[in-house]
Amino acid sequence: MAVNTKALLSDSVVDLMNQAVIVSGQTYNKIDNYATVRQDDMASSIAFTVFSRMSPATTALTDGTEASSTTMTDTKVTLTMAEYGAVITSTSLANIATAGKADLASAELVGINMGETQESLGLAALEAGTNTIAADTAGTLDNLDLREAYTALSSDGIAKFEDGRYVAFVNPAQVSDIKSDYIPIAQNTNLAAATQGVVGSLEGFTIVESSLVTAGSCVCFGRNALGKAIAQAPGLVIKEGSDNLGRTVNVGFYGVFAYGIIDANASRKITGC
Predict the structure, then answer these.
(1) What is the DSSP string of 175-199?
(2) Which residues pair with 228 in a beta bridge?
(3) How many helices (H) and strands (E) would you count in the chain?
(4) Distance separating alpha carbons of residues 33 and 122, to the nearest angstrom
(5) In the CATH hierarchy, which top-level class contains the domain 5-50+77-125+227-261?
(6) How many CA within 13 A on the CB side of residue 64?
(7) What pLDDT is stored for residue 111 in this prediction?
(8) Cβ contact 260:77 at 8 Å
């Protein structure tokens, strides 16, 4: 007798599958911790408004005279929505052969993919930035490269994150450079941060390790550098397949969103490291 995989999924198993996706999504999407997020359900595009800062008021006011007024200026950065998703088709036979683990594995794999897809898109937006710094030594990331990036961001008055630092996303190979050659890196001991890829701090940066960063490069940025616009938040989708005996089930994720640079001055890319 043919077995309908979907019918075998009890409420408790479906709940476990959802939990797997939630855990994986959080674990494998580190970039959203540092993105400015705006959500406008069902929108085709979402605009971020960037206001120009005022000049310091260094001239003393004159008694009895009104202060000069400054006209507020702003620019808009519009991100156009796009659909993203991935799916795994599980079969009844595979699920029976694995004692029901095939569907759970499908959900876990989809959850990981959902997180990594978003992180890849966010990093790609940052890596496309035009503000670049060439590494002092070709093929090696060192603390002086990070110091130069910090100076550039700080000189432009870019706001830091809540921990008082900027963020640098680094490929594991480049993390190895600064770990082995430069003792001043402060190793991270916070478990919650460590599970998000934070390995420590160096030269005013929180160092976040990600294998999705292009090898030989490092992206350094402050607040409001990266924007994420959401028209439909990515989420788990479970659909029965087209098999006429109900032997297949599709487990996937679907979302409508976009990443983009909001303030180009708030990002620097170290190249050739």
Answers:
(1) HHHHHHH-TT-EE---HHHHTTTEE
(2) 37, 259
(3) 7, 13
(4) 11
(5) alpha beta
(6) 0
(7) 86
(8) yes
End-to-end CA distance of the chain: 60
Whole-number Å distance between alpha carbons of 186 and 207: 10
Domains in the chain: boundaries: 5-50+77-125+227-261, 133-226
Alpha carbon distance 184, 165 (integer Å): 16
Cβ atoms of residues 122 and 169 within 8 Å: no
State the CATH class of domain 133-226: alpha beta
Tokens at residue 129, please? 């930035």
> What DSSP assignment string belongs to 91-156?
EHHHHHHTTTHHHHHHHHHHHHHHHHHHHHHHHHHHHT-S-EEE-SBTTB--HHHHHHHHHHHHHT
Q: C-alpha distances in angstroms, 92 versus 16, 17, 20, 193, 247?
A: 19, 17, 21, 39, 5
What are phi and psi for residue 172, nearest 5 degrees?
-50, -35
Q: What is the mean pLDDT of each run of 10 residues along the chain (273 residues)?
A: 46 52 56 94 91 85 89 89 93 67 78 92 96 94 94 95 94 84 52 62 91 95 96 90 80 95 96 93
Cα dihedral value 169, 173, 176, 177, nearest 10: -90
Q: How many residues can be counted in the chain? A: 273
Give the Cα separation of 35 and 258 in Å (integer): 12
Q: What are phi and psi of 133, to 5 degrees?
A: -130, 125
